[in-house]
Write a structure and sequence with these properties.
By secondary structure, the protein is an all-alpha fold. Helix content is 76%, strand content 0%. It is built from eight helices and no strands. The protein has helices at residues 6-23, 30-37, 41-48, 51-72, 81-107, 113-138, 142-162, 165-188. Helix 1 (6-23) crosses helix 4 (51-72). The longest helix has 27 residues, at 81-107.
């Protein structure tokens, strides 16, 4: 039996991840995964070695895709930031709530702690790359943007998992206050002050 090509392997991982997200870690057995993929238990084990490997690989692959989807909605200018703040918590909850709940189920488990550390080291690298990309578009320092990404993503993820409007609005208020302080510092130093839309409560 040949190992699957990259496209086939990716398709298997994404199908398995969808099943995990629907049923949870403990309620998802190898047969359920294999049936969803249209293969036998033995074939799935041949390709990935164990259920643990499927959990680890599918979570890392699919959550990196979720990050990319999140940043595909990123603001295209400073004036576009408010649109991003208003929309993304609700887009994230609608599209990715189940995925975040499963990811935390995996990485909060002592069994997968080391894999979680590795994944979040990769998150640090990817967030820096996102911040570099956005720096020129927003006219803001890369390290400042990276910090704002962490705060805002945490707010969106918490809302997606728990629907906690109070926490979300407090975090959004902190982001907006930080942006206003940044604008004020730019004005006082004689630098350009980018316009920010009036704050709106969703």
């Amino acid at each position: 039996m040949e190992k699957p090509g990259a496209d086939r392997r990716t398709a298997l991982l994404e199908t398995c991840f969808d099943v995990f997200c629907r049923h949870g870690l403990e309620n998802t057995g190898l047969k359920l995964l294999a049936d969803a993929c249209g293969v036998t238990n033995g074939a799935l084990l041949y390709h990935f070695g164990s259920k643990d490997n499927i959990v680890i690989e599918s979570t890392a692959h699919c959550m990196a895709k979720v990050e990319d989807d999140f940043m595909a909605h990123a603001p295209r200018s400073f004036a576009d930031i408010e649109r991003f703040l208003r929309e993304m918590p609700y887009i994230t909850a609608r599209l990715h709530g189940e995925k975040y709940r499963f990811m935390y189920q995996v990485y909060a488990s002592p069994k997968y702690r080391e894999q979680g550390k590795t994944f979040f080291q990769g998150v640090n690298v990817r967030y820096w790359q996102y911040a570099l990309q956005l720096s020129g578009q927003l006219g803001m320092p890369t390290d400042y943007i990276q910090g704002m990404i962490y705060v805002f993503v945490r707010a969106c993820v918490h809302y997606a998992m728990f629907g906690d409007e109070e926490y979300l609005n407090l975090q959004l208020g902190a982001v907006r206050s930080s942006l206003r302080a940044y604008m004020a510092a730019g004005r006082s130093s004689g630098g350009p002050a980018a316009p920010m839309q009036k704050e709106e409560t969703p």
